[in-house]
Specification:
With 365 residues, the chain is mainly α. It contains 19 helices and no strands. The protein is globular and about 50 Å long. The termini are far apart. 38% of the residues are buried.
């Protein structure tokens, strides 16, 4: 992702190389979120701040709080309400999510929520409020078949049409021949996503020598090209991942996507980071802490911290991951491509480790 991934506010590119924006050094506490939120709400600057910054602030805020608030706990001005993508991807308050959906008829986060519902329905029946959300979203989002991936399109249509109490896992109990077609299409589609990331990274590297205005214009064109791809296949990417997690859980492409950093978000509201977080969790469940230790340099730091905190990881495992993280990235003022200083990441690792240690102590009582 590199130093351009955080979506800089308008500054001279030479000064950026030596003086990263102030939010690079920001410890996102309850008090510190406020000034950065002002920047994010400023329409003049919002276009140059991508979803990675919002993701960082939101995840670290939730990490400090220790829980995901209910909808009625969110107040005007809260970042989780102003930019609700992370909250919608993590909250289990389906009644509150339904209220949010009713209050946002423009459907800005519909694709993200459909992916979330797909992920949840793949393992369990949906609750009443989640089913109501699915019915509403299916009614206001027309289906778009993808001729390149016909079997995935059929399954997606079946998922959207099944708005009663059926689970996706029941749909997957099909013939072996059909499953093989699904696996083939799913792997091909996720390979296409990896190629897209790779192509955009190569284009981004070619922009580095440009003057700031030319650099920004070229980046916007590249981002638009990538966004067109991700918006076309957004729900199919999650569907392909869910299929492989169920039918071919050791498929190498799952790990490749989990560890693939886009140079910038292609289509934040459609759940690109939810997809990456989901696959990181899958790989961790399959391989354990060694997966995180061996690949920490390929994982967005906020994702790494949040996964450790919310999983069943032990304090010992968290310490091992912390050591690997800092061995690969010696202190240098800020972590390239992330939104916080290494010193502050130390505090967040220690926060997670202390929580795990306390929980282990309670378990022995």
């Amino acid at each position: 992702m590199g130093a351009t991934g955080a979506g800089y506010i308008s500054q001279d590119r030479e000064s950026l190389a030596t003086n990263p924006p102030f939010y690079k050094y920001l410890l996102v506490t309850t008090q510190a979120v406020a000034p950065l939120r002002i920047i994010l709400k400023n329409n003049e600057l919002r276009c140059t701040m991508d979803g990675l910054v919002i993701e960082s602030i939101s995840l670290l805020t939730l990490l400090e709080v220790g829980d995901v608030p209910h909808y009625e706990q969110l107040k005007p001005g809260d970042i989780l309400l102003d930019f609700p993508g992370v909250w919608l991807a993590l909250s289990e308050d389906w009644k509150g999510i339904y209220q949010h959906v009713l209050a946002t008829p423009e459907g800005w986060y519909d694709e993200l929520l459909l992916s979330r519902l797909l992920l949840k329905e793949s393992t369990q029946s949906l609750c009443v409020n989640a089913l109501a959300i699915k019915h509403l979203l299916a009614s206001r989002n027309p289906l778009h078949n993808q001729d390149t991936y016909p079997e995935l399109s059929k399954l997606w249509a079946a998922f959207c049409a099944n708005v009663n109490d059926g689970t996706l896992s029941q749909m997957l109990a099909s013939s072996t021949a059909f499953q093989e077609k699904l696996i083939s299409e799913a792997e091909a589609l996720l390979d296409f996503l990896l190629i897209t990331h790779s192509t955009l990274r190569e284009r981004q590297e070619g922009f580095e020598s440009k003057h700031w205005d030319d650099y920004r214009a070229a980046t916007e064109v590249a981002r638009d090209d990538g966004s067109a791809i991700f918006s076309t296949y957004s729900n199919h990417f999650m569907l392909a991942s869910v299929l492989l997690m169920h039918l071919k859980p050791n498929s190498p492409v799952l790990k490749d996507v989990a560890l693939s950093w886009p140079p910038y978000l292609l289509y934040p509201n459609a759940g690109e980071l939810l997809l990456i977080r989901t696959l990181l969790s899958h790989c961790y469940q399959k391989e354990g802490a060694n997966f995180l230790v061996n690949n920490s340099e390929h994982i967005i730091p906020e994702h790494l911290l949040f996964l450790l905190d919310k999983s069943n990881s032990s304090a010992v495992e968290c310490i091992a991951v912390k050591q690997a993280f800092f061995e690969k990235y010696p202190p240098q003022g800020y972590y390239p491509g992330a939104n916080n200083s290494l010193e502050n990441y130390t505090e967040y690792f220690d926060l997670v480790i202390n929580r795990k240690s306390k929980r282990a102590g309670y378990d022995h009582l």
